[in-house]
Amino acid sequence: MGALLSLPLLALPSVGTLVTFGASCCGAATCSAVCSACGKFQSSMATRIAYAFILLINSIFSWLMLTPWALSKLEHLTLDYMKIKCLGEACTGYVAVQRINFALGIFHFIMALLLLGVKSSKDSRAGLQNGYWGPKIIVWLGFIVLTFLIPESFFQVWGRYFAFIGAMLFVLLGLILLVDLAHTYAEFCLEKIENYDSKAWRVLLIGSTLGMYTASFAMTILMYIFFAGHNCSMNQAAITVNLIVLLIISFLSVHPAVQESNPKAGLAQSAMVAVYCTYLTMSAVSMEPDDKLCNPLIRANGARTASIVLGAIVTMLTIAYTTTRAATQGFALGTSGGHAYAKLGEEEVEHGMIDQQPMSARREMRAEALRAAVEAGSLPASALNDDDDDDSDDGRNGKDDEKGGTQYNYSLFHVIFLLATCWVATLLTQQINDIEMTDPNFAPVGRSYWASWVKIVSAWLCYVIYGWSLIAPVVLPDRFGH
Question: By percentage, how much of the chain surpasses pLDDT 90?
Answer without folding.
Answer: 27
